[in-house]
Amino acid sequence: RFKSDCIGQGSVTSVLFCEVKYCLLPCGGFAPLNKSVSKYIKNSKFKVNSVSPGGLFDHQPKEFCEAYQSYTNGKGMLEVQEFIGTILFLLSDDSKYVTGQNIVVDDGFTL
């Protein structure tokens, strides 16, 4: 059998059930899908996981970034390269037994 991985981009809204008032897109859909697909394809070498980043910095206004930072452990908005390591881990052999998971990388925003 061949090895293959599916890594979806989740969202912290998939973790913040009651605290999010508006979600215009079904961005939290990967988290429950991971578990269902992983069970369906059991006994294969195919892994299904997702990474849910917190706020990603894209030149948002300073006031927004400061307000967001007050809900985190200190860093606040993340740069894309700060969660790439999680994706590389999921693609590596070090994660060969990790499947059906949604890994949140958000500096504590969802705590």
Task: Report a brief summary of the structure.
The chain is 24% helix and 16% strand. The chain is built from three helices and three strands.
Overall mean pLDDT: 81
Secondary-structure-derived class: alpha/beta
Strand order of the largest sheet: 1-2-3
Overall strand count: 3
Shape: elongated
Written account of the structure:
The protein is α/β, with parallel strands linked by helices. Helices cover 24% and strands 16% of the residues. It contains 3 helices and 3 strands; from the N terminus they run E-H-E-H-H-E. The protein has helices spanning 30-40, 62-69, 84-91, and strands at 4-9, 46-53, 102-105. Helix 1 links the parallel strand 1 and strand 2. The radius of gyration is 15 Å and the shape is elongated.
